[in-house]
Amino acid sequence: MNDHENGVRVHFLDQLNAASVADFVALLDGTYEHSPWIAERAAAARPFASLAALKVALARVVREATVDEQLGLIRAHPELAGKAAVAGELTAESTNEQSKAGLTACTPEEFAKLQELNAAYNARFGFPFILAVRGPRGLGLTRQEIIATFERRLRAHPDLERAECLRQIHRIAEIRLNDKCGVQPARGQQLWDWAAELARHSDDAEFLTCTYATPAHTAVAEQLMAWMRDCGFDDVHRDAVGNVVGVYHGTAGATAGQRLLTGSHFDTVRRAGRFDGRLGIFVPMLVVRDLHRAGRRLPFGLEVVGFSEEECQRFPADFLASSAVIGAFDADWLARTDAAGITLADAMRAAGLPGSDEAIQALRRDPARYLGFVEVHIEQGPVLDSLDLPLGIVTSINGSRRYTGEVIGLASHAGTTPMGQRRDAAAGVAELILFCEQRAAAVPDVVGTVGMLEVPSGSINVIPGHCRFSLDLRATTDEARDALDADVRAKLDEICQRRGLSFTLQPTLAANAAPSHPAWQARWEAAVTALGLPLHRLPSGAGHDAMKLHELLPQAMLFVRGGNGGISHNPLESVTVDDAELAVAAFEHLIENLHV
Fold it and tell me: Is 91 in a helix, a strand, or coil?
């Protein structure tokens, strides 16, 4: 954001904060379609410290409104590419938005398709389909993207779709407020563009997939290094496990003084989104770029690591990249193979890496050299999106235990075996699933999941004699995780004894919880508060590189809201440029106020 834009924004906020309620509503006219009541109620929350604070306050008014008021807001919006658009009867704001997406210039076939979708949507939900057609980047979605989103959301549950319409309305309002203030979230736009550019490198031609030590993976590393050099990092290299490392020296230079370690991973799951992991590399890169352009150094160095592997998609070696950084890389991993029989060591060498334990062990960081580790990450969940909050403070990364198991009963005829004499393996697992759900739900921040379920050689007229399943048990503390684990295993034993079944249970993962370091969590909280945003603290149910760095350094994480209900590990994963801009600003505040 340039000085002129910042001045326009501050002037507009000053006007809003000083205005009468009537003038406040007038200044915000057109932000929400034909709904002045939103501004009227939000006026009571003044003064607003930032444009982001205003956006959150307006969204809160809508979230706390009655269902009838929310429906009235949704119905105040026009249909996409409807008759009003053709006749030129939309508000100026809607005309601008629909024209940016090309909806005022549909082909006859596209117009007919949209009319068909509009009719089906109204028949199902009773309100018009709402979509911020300028999109998360702000430049406008294509008509093909709009139609695909229309078709996907037409299948949603009515309550979920009403909530999604409201979130889309808030995005429309955000873009309109930016236009009123002359604001361009330039760093957020750059982050979004980098993510789109990196997504071109994929193992799969159709969906983003970037697994360890593939040609696409190497191409991503090379592109990251090129961008880091352009940003002004003093030292950029690819290490022995393929991590991309960029160092921006502090005032003490290359050899003296401590560093702040930060970053995230750049590998992906299969059929991935663009922001998981990579967002946490881009954010500090943009801050370094600004420091370099201003000719400024910090009292400490910044070391940004793009971890080469976190997702465990190609080789069975969890967190191999961050494990190397903390000195916990297991040399036995080098002999492990992927689905094609290629060893990890051979894959490393094919990707231009040494593939030797000696080179990898040399990567261990000296904790005395580092202040701590911080990570910025997309939330990968629905909490922030449901609360209309762009940023959240991570309190802990959940500890977890995972198992694969099998219950063994007796396969017998479905018609001739009385209900009281059955040894149904699938019914036993079904009972365990329900217990796991109920037991986890009874304790805050504890979750339990059976994600895989299989009846081998099952038949419609045969009682299942075998049932395979998985267990994923997580909690914010090791004590809560272990209590859940003990109760679930005891219940499995009890179910099998009562039903005349037997079972096997194989542990596949045990990870300890990683609570955020209080001082570093407080620094993230101060950064979010400085942006004028309310604090929301939440645990991370997903694993992150930070939980490995936790074993060596104090750590804390910042979450960024994900769009589309917070979905991640999915092509629908998204962040807006405005939320990305706030994440960069929060990181900037953290380092500018870090006293060493």
Answer: coil
Give helix 67-75 / helix 51-63 axis angle, nearest 10°: 120
CB 270 within 8 A of CB 312: no
CATH number at residue 289: 3.40.630.10
Q: Do the Cβ atoms of 171 and 576 come closer than 8 Å?
A: yes
pLDDT tens-digit series, residues 283-293: 999 999 999 99
Q: Are the beta carbons of 368 and 486 closer than 8 angstroms?
A: no
SS3 291: helix
Cα distances (angstroms) measured from residue 548 to each of 73, 150, 276, 532, 555: 46, 41, 17, 32, 10
Whether 457 and 368 share a structural domain: no
- The domain total for the chain is 3
Kindly report whether the peptide bond that precedes residue 47 is cis, defined as omega within 30 degrees of 0: yes
pTM score, two decimals? Answer: 0.91
pLDDT at residue 436 above 60?
A: yes
Residues 23 and 151 in one domain: yes
* pLDDT exceeds 90 at position 562: yes
At residue 206, φ and ψ (nearest 5 deg) are: -95, -40
Q: Is residue 374 packed enough to be buried (19+ CB in 10 Å), middle (13-18) or exposed (0-12)?
A: buried
Domain that holds residue 361: 189-395+515-592
What tens digit of pLDDT does each residue of 90-114 get?
566 666 666 666 676 788 898 899 9
Quote the pLDDT of residue 527. 98
CA nearest to 224, candidates 285, 277, 275? 285
Cα of first residue to Cα of last residue in the chain, in angstroms, is 28
* Residue whose structure tokens are 């880091």: 228
Bridge partners, 510 (sequence order):
401
* 339's tokens: 């689905």
- For residue 189, what is the enclosing H or E element? helix 186-198
Query: Exposure of 123 by Cβ count < 10 A (0-12 exposed, 13-18 middle, 19+ buried)?
Result: exposed
CA 359 to chain centre: 33
